[in-house]
Amino acid sequence: MSTRDFIEKDYYAALGVAQDADAAAIKKAYRQLARDLHPDKNPGNADAEARFKDVSEAYDVLSDPKRRAEYDEARRLFGSGGAGARAGFPGGFPNNAGAGQPFDLGDLFGAAGGARAGGAGGAGGLGDLLGGLFGGGGAAPGSARARSQAASGPARGQDVETEATLSFEEAVLGVTVPLRMQSPGTCPTCAGSGAKPGTSPHTCPVCQGAGVTSRSQGAFAFSEPCRNCRGSGQVVDDPCPTCTGSGVTTQTRTITVRIPAGVKDGQRIRLAGKGAPGRRGGPAGDLFVVVHVAEHELFGRNGNDLTLSVPITFGEATLGTTLTVPTLDGNVSLRVPAGTASGQTLRVRGRGVPGKGRAGDLLVTVEVAVPKRVSAVAEQAIKTLEAELGDPRPRITAAVSGGGAR
Q1: Read out DSSP for 18-68?
Q2: How many CB atoms lie within 10 A of CB 238?
Q3: Domain of 58: which CATH number?
């Protein structure tokens, strides 16, 4: 959809609805007109076919809330058609272009921006506002800023994403890994020029290297990307046989990546400037590495703390003991106090996941191991021990009072 369509065409009139018509009314009007004007119903009728296209175009815009809002805003700023546009500027067109002299919309945006900035020029203001309106990425269609963006110049390379699978230890302690990946890269045959070796691109004769061309429509001059060079400003007569003129090929490369200590499963690591190379001298994109961490047979993880379950005997839990427990970088001694209950967690400080500042802890949960079978001698010994220790469970007696329900 061009800027001129937004300014000059009255889509509400095309559908025969009011500007405040709701979505249901717009849909109903379109369906009726589409049935009446459909080419199958009007064979050979050029007027009906043209009207059918206008109605379809109008419905495409007005049925989309976002595009309808953009269209309404454009008509509010400029009015409908040339007369409405003049009404938006009481002093006439900028640079005395009202008397049949075509002028560039970029000049109009610049003048409006300059007036709002107290005569400071057209770097911002209305031009920047309309950049978002027409999807121009911050530059108004036809403005000097838009022309400079379309012209050939440095372009940032694409971001690239790859994956790396690490062991539990590598994720916790950090590791340097080689990554073999395929991504767009500068064509080695033509060094990114797109031209066959021995030849070189030349300035586009249509746009003179600007990347855009202008055309007049009444009092307005509209700029659009040059069709001859596709907005690049350069023409390749003899394309490179390797990249067919694009200057980019898919390449396999191996890079060495340092994975920091403490990464988590699913975490994305950004490596600035390690993505696809830029075009025409532009900066390279970024590389994003998605990390997958394998599970460990002994350890779990809770934030920066490592978790570990260790079985102990009834005697060790009752009398206390000193255990030797593993960590990811060796063993450590852990004192189990006398009378430790099964399921109690003991903390070993600083032996968890390294991090910024203090490292995490190792959380050791002790579980009293209960044998499934015992010998007759052991059974008798356990009964003797129970009789000696007594029953630790509280006795709850329920007093039942006489009488029925009250």
Answers
A1: -TT--HHHHHHHHHHHHHHH-TTTSTT-HHHHHHHHHHHHHHHHHTSHHHH
A2: 14
A3: 1.10.287.110
Q: Which domain covers residue 255, as residue numbers?
A: 160-201+236-293
Nearest to 304 by CA among 150, 111, 172, 127: 172
Tell me the sheet residues that pair with 202: 235
> Where are any strands of DSSP class E within 35-156?
103-104
In a domain, 12, yes or no: yes
Is the C-alpha dihedral spanning 43, 44, 47, 49 positive or negative? positive
Report if residue 222 sits inside a domain.
no
Tens of pLDDT along the chain (406 residues) come to: 455 555 678 889 989 999 899 999 998 998 889 888 887 788 888 888 888 888 888 888 898 888 888 888 877 766 544 434 443 444 344 444 444 444 444 444 444 444 444 444 443 444 444 444 444 444 444 444 444 444 456 778 888 888 889 999 999 988 998 888 777 777 888 888 888 998 988 888 888 888 888 877 666 667 788 888 877 788 888 899 988 887 888 888 888 888 888 899 999 999 898 887 776 667 888 989 999 999 999 999 998 899 999 999 999 999 999 999 999 888 999 999 999 999 999 999 999 998 777 889 999 999 999 988 989 998 899 899 888 887 776 665 555 455 554 4
What's the sign of the alpha-carbon dihedral 74, 79, 80, 82? negative
210 within domain boundaries: no
Residues 285 and 331 occupy one common structural domain: no
Among residues 150, 173, 191, the one where a domain terminates is 150
User: Number of structural domains, the chain?
Assistant: 3
HSE-CB for 258 with a 13 A CA cutoff: 3
CATH number, domain containing residue 187: 2.60.260.20
The answer to the question of residue 318 being in a domain is yes
